[in-house]
Design a protein that fits this description.
76 residues; alpha+beta; 3-stranded antiparallel beta sheet; 4 helices
Length: 76
């Protein structure tokens, strides 16, 4: 972790994640969101939020695009 990393406030992190600040606070208090306590305030690292978003990706698992097209091609 370097000092040059981008830190977000609760409001900024919520906007980045496209959720309400109340939802972010709830996720944080339930241990679902990585955060740092700096003084009396919670801070969130942009890079950690980005990684969290990437783990939320939805879609086919272990199936190539070609297999999907061959299986579902008639429906498009």
């Amino acid at each position: 972790m370097t000092i040059e990393q981008e830190w977000f406030t609760t409001e900024e992190a919520a906007e980045y994640l496209r959720i309400s600040p109340a939802s972010l606070r709830n996720m944080t208090s339930n241990g679902l969101m990585p955060y740092y306590k700096i003084g009396k305030r919670n801070r969130y690292l942009k890079e950690e939020l980005k990684k969290l978003l990437m783990t939320q990706k939805r879609g086919p698992k272990n199936e190539s695009s070609e297999k999907i097209v061959s299986r579902w091609g008639n429906y498009f």
